[in-house]
Amino acid sequence: MSGINHTKAESMRAENNLQIDGQRLWGDLMATAQIGATAKGGICRLALTDLDAEMRDWFKAQCEALGCIVTVDDVGNMFARRPGRNAALPPIAIGSHLDTQPTGGKFDGTLGVLGALEALRTLHLAGYETNAPIEVVNWTNEEGARFAPPMLASGVFAGVFTREYADARTDRDGKTFAEELRRIGYRGSETAGAHKFSGMFELHIEQGPILEAEGRMIGIVQGVQGIRWYEVTVTGEATHAGATPMPLRKNALLGAARLIDRIDAIARDHAPDAVGTVGLIENRPNSRNVVPGEVFFIVDLRHPDEAALDAMERQLHAALSDVLRPLDLSYTAARVWDSPALKFAPELIECVRIGAHKAGFSNRDMISGAGHDACYVARVAPTAMIFVPCAGGISHNEAEYTSPDQCAAGAQVLLNAVLEFDRRLG
Ligand code: HGY
Ligand code: MN
Ligand code: MN
């Protein structure tokens, strides 16, 4: 690296004083929260929209201003590379996602990318030379809010999905992933997954209540629970709300309503670890005086144990038949996404633990309830995650809040963990 002539000993000494700048990170978070800002203080920055493009452009300019080379792969994943002492070492990746839910918060995903940018900026301003290159990563379409399934592009990177499968995903308006990626100008030339990582660390808000409830600053994430999505269509008959006697109705929305109650009961059946949700539902024709003829909805089942998820899935299929047949309704149901429970890499978890202790932050081991790009990257590189609290455990909500100190703590532990892992690669 030009102009830097640190001996390894000097670098080791320099490392001990590397502190991220929490105010600078908070400034980035608040400035970029304007890109897709909602009236209620959240962010709506759906994948591959013009707002996503604007955020990507901002991110690229920031990284290039730090001397990084920014590359984009063919599903839009962005990699900002800072060279290290040994170019033969695969980079250490640090990052997350910049797309949000429709009523998302300021921190889900964005903290992971901007916290990584702050860690890299701290290295750059200190003139600290790492052994391995460092890459800050923005993964495309993590949320799955516009194009299902979630973690789509990190999934292509990890070989879970083909590029063709991703390209063909459509949003609820029928636009394809491929055409939208091309439209915003982020269809890169590199084949997703072509370049390898020495490891990846992802900083993220917990999106649950545990850290805050226990008054701890850092979650040392051991793994992620299993997640399955099902697309269900219930079919009855659209008829007149006034002229159709109750016994003659084939009311698809009544069937869906009873099913949603059963899905909630299935999750409670497998307490305390199971969760079951129906978050997206489309009622057709959705007219005030028409008995609904068709309802489409998505079922989200999660549990840390795959055998329990299998049992929940069996109960879901039994409920479909039990509930809908007596109402003279037909249905289709298909599992459209399956992200199995996974454990992160013990060595990188150890680096996170060392990083938290070095920074002096209280911490606890935990499993992630939410899915993350780290789930799929863990299939192709040693991976670990760092959590920080969020107020009331609220996320996927415009009220999502993590304090400046908590954001700074996460970025500091991220930097410490990266330097610990980098030292081991040297
Ligand atoms: O669905 C999830 O857990 C993540 O927010 N994509
Ligand atoms: Mn996220
Ligand atoms: Mn999310």
What would your notes on this structure say?
There is one protein chain. This protein is an alpha/beta fold and 426 residues long. The protein folds into 2 domains: 2-225 and 341-425, Zn peptidases (Aminopeptidase); 226-339, Alpha-Beta Plaits, CATH 3.30.70. Helices cover 36% and strands 22% of the residues. The protein has 13 helices and 15 strands. The chain has helices at 8-16, 22-32, 50-65, 110-126, 152-157, 163-168, 177-183, 210-214, 252-269, 306-324, 346-359, 373-377, 404-425; strands at residues 69-72, 78-82, 92-97, 134-139, 199-205, 218-224, 226-235, 239-240, 275-284, 290-291, 294-303, 330-339, 342-343, 363-368, 383-388. The strands form 3 sheets. Strands 1, 2, 3, 4, 5, 6, 13, 14 and 15 form a 9-stranded mixed sheet that branches. The chain has a 4-stranded antiparallel sheet with strand order 9-11-7-12, with helices on one face. Strand 1 and strand 2 form a beta hairpin. The protein is elongated. Mean pLDDT is 96; it is low at 1-6. Residues 101, 108, 143, 396 line the site of one manganese (II) ion.
Supply the key terms:
single chain, 426 residues, Aminopeptidase, 2 domains, 9-stranded mixed beta sheet, 4-stranded antiparallel beta sheet, 13 helices, 36% helix, elongated, binds (2S)-amino(hydroxy)ethanoic acid, binds manganese (II) ion
